[in-house]
């Protein structure tokens, strides 16, 4: 211990522990749960630099910082869990929207193909009837083309 630490700080060990706790709280408060679990080395390095800044004027040198176990208060655990859930929900909504967008494009492409070839609509209709009959349904509904109805109206 240097003379500075003895004259400026009454209990350097206690003061260093308090500084370490405060620094750890401040650093962990800026991290997500995922970062806390995966970036222990980076957090320890950040802690080391914070402690060096705080303890150098006292003449104390912290040689090593290791983060072995972090216990978070229940309220912080709940807020982190809520944040993670909201993030998952947001990603799910983005994925669903992208799926809808792709489906819309494919439907438009299918409509363009059918518009170019009227027989394609008839083939699709027959394919749908085949699928319905394969499901052993007792009722099959035959749709009547709108064009046929307009011809019937004109003739009456």
From TrEMBL:
Top-level lineage group: Eukaryota
InterPro entries: Band-7_stomatin-like, Band_7, Band_7/SPFH_dom_sf, Band_7/stomatin-like_CS, Stomatin_HflK_fam
Cellular component annotations (GO), alphabetically ordered: cytoplasmic side of plasma membrane
Ranges where the Band domain occurs: 7-100
Keywords of this entry: Membrane
Cell compartments where the protein resides: Membrane
Predominant subcellular localization, coarse grouping: membrane
Record Pfam families: Band_7 (PF01145)
Family annotation (SUPFAM superfamilies): Band 7/SPFH domain (SSF117892)
Family: Belongs to the band 7/mec-2 family.
Stored PANTHER family: AT06885P-RELATED (PTHR10264:SF19), BAND 7 PROTEIN-RELATED (PTHR10264)
Protein name: Band 7 domain-containing protein
Species of provenance: Rotaria magnacalcarata
